[in-house]
Design brief:
Elements: H1 2-24, H2 37-52, H3 57-67, E1 85-87, E2 97-98, H4 101-111, H5 113-123, H6 125-135, H7 140-170, H8 174-197, H9 213-223, H10 233-244, H11 248-282, H12 285-312, H13 315-333
Helix pairs in contact: 1-5, 1-12, 2-3, 2-12, 4-11, 5-11, 5-12, 6-7, 7-9, 7-11, 8-10, 8-13, 9-10, 10-11, 11-12
C-alpha cells in the first residue's frame, strides 16, 4: 500500500512539472500534420519503458515510427502549397533543409525524454538533494556522489558533442542498430557470466558514492559506446558498473543518476536545433501528452528494473535484444 501511495505522489509531482511546462509554452499556429492522440501515447510508452531498460530505446522507436507511418521524408508544404523549411536555402545550405514528418518525429522522441527525466527526479530526489548538499559542503557522501556522476557524464558530453554530426550522418541506420543490439546482447551475457563467477569477491561497492574517480571515469568512457544507436546507454553503464564493483541494483541506480544529465543535455540541444520545427508539424498538445505518458511509464520501468535485476540479472534482457534484432532485420528486409 505504501508503494502505491508513494508512486501516486511521484505521479502527481510529474503532472505538476508537465503542467507548468504547458503553461509556459507559447501559443503557436495550427500544426501542419497533427500527431494523433494514439500515436502520442504509443511513442510516450515506448520512450518511457525502453529508456532505462537495457534494451535500446532507439531500436524500439525505429519500429514504432515505422508502424505509425512517421518515417516519411516527403517535404511538407503550407496551405498555399509553398514548401516549409527546417533551414531555408542560404549560402551555407544552398538547397535548404525541407521540413518533413520524419524530422519532426525524430525530434519528438528526443524531446519527450523530459518525461523520463521527471520520473528519475521524482524517484531519486533524495540522492539529488544529497548531491546539492555536497556541493555546498554539507554532505561528504553527497559530494562524492556528485563528483562520480559528473566524472561519468563528462566523457559522453564532450565526445558526443564533437561526434554528434558524424554519428547522425553515418551511424543512424537500421543495420547499425541491429548490429549494436546483437553486440550488446553478447556483452550482457558475458557480463552476467563474469558477475556470477566473481559474486563472492568482485562486488564491494554499496552505492555510487563509493566508486573511485577512476572507476567513475571508466563508466563515463563506457557510456560513449552508447552513442552508437542500438547499443543502449543503460546497458553499457550497468555493465561498466558491474566491472567497477557495484551490485546489479546499485549499478542500475547509478546508471539512472548518470542518465539524467545525459538525457537533459540531448533534449535541450535537440529542442534548440529542431524543436520549433517539431511544434510547427505536430503542435503542442500531444508533445506534452507524450512527455506525460513517458514520465509515468518510465517511473514504473525504473522500479521494475531495480527489482528484477537484483534477482535475475541481465540475461533475460540480452535474449530480448536478440529477438528485437531479428524483428528489425525482418522489418529492414521488407
Amino acid at each position: 500500500m505504501y508503494c502505491l501511495s508513494h508512486s501516486f505522489r511521484h505521479s502527481l509531482l510529474i503532472c505538476s512539472i508537465l503542467l507548468l511546462s504547458a503553461r509556459a509554452a507559447e501559443k503557436s499556429g495550427p500544426p501542419v500534420k497533427e500527431l494523433s492522440t494514439a500515436d502520442a501515447i504509443v511513442l510516450g510508452l515506448v520512450e518511457g519503458v525502453t529508456e532505462f531498460l537495457p534494451i535500446s530505446s532507439t531500436g524500439h522507436l525505429i519500429i514504432a515510427n515505422e508502424l505509425l507511418g512517421l518515417e516519411s521524408t516527403r517535404p511538407l508544404t503550407d496551405a498555399a502549397g509553398k514548401p516549409l523549411w527546417h533551414k531555408a536555402p542560404s549560402k551555407d545550405h544552398p538547397d535548404g533543409v525541407p521540413l518533413t514528418v520524419k524530422l519532426a518525429a525524430d525530434t519528438y522522441t528526443v524531446v519527450i525524454q523530459i518525461g523520463a527525466i521527471a520520473a528519475v527526479l521524482a524517484l531519486y530526489w533524495r540522492q539529488y538533494l544529497s548531491m546539492l548538499l555536497g556541493l555546498i559542503g554539507r554532505s561528504s557522501s553527497g559530494f562524492r556522489l556528485l563528483r562520480n556522476v559528473l566524472l561519468a557524464f563528462f566523457p559522453v558530453a564532450i565526445i558526443g558533442f564533437l561526434l554528434h554530426d558524424l554519428v547522425a550522418k553515418y551511424l543512424f541506420s537500421t543495420f547499425t542498430v541491429i548490429s549494436a543490439l546483437v553486440g550488446g546482447a553478447l556483452l550482457m551475457l558475458w557480463a552476467e557470466r563474469w558477475r556470477r563467477a566473481n559474486s563472492g569477491t568482485g562486488f564491494s561497492k554499496g552505492e555510487g558514492a563509493e566508486l573511485t574517480p577512476r572507476q567513475s571515469l571508466g563508466i563515463g568512457f563506457a557510456q560513449c559506446f552508447a552513442l552508437c544507436p542500438g547499443m543502449s546507454r543503460s546497458m553499457v553503464t550497468i555493465v561498466a558498473g558491474y566491472l567497477a564493483g557495484l551490485k546489479p541494483a546499485q549499478s542500475a541506480e547509478f546508471s539512472f543518476l548518470v542518465g539524467l544529465p545525459t538525457l537533459a543535455g540531448a533534449a535541450f540541444l535537440k529542442s534548440l536545433k529542431s524543436g520549433p520545427a517539431m511544434i510547427q508539424v505536430f503542435g503542442w498538445s500531444n508533445v506534452l501528452l507524450g512527455a506525460f505518458v513517458a514520465a509515468i511509464s518510465a517511473l514504473l520501468a525504473v522500479k521494475f528494473l531495480v527489482h528484477f535485476i537484483s534477482r535475475h540479472g541481465l540475461a533475460v534482457f540480452a535474449y530480448y535484444r536478440l529477438a528485437l534484432a531479428v524483428a528489425l532485420l525482418v522489418l529492414y528486409l521488407l
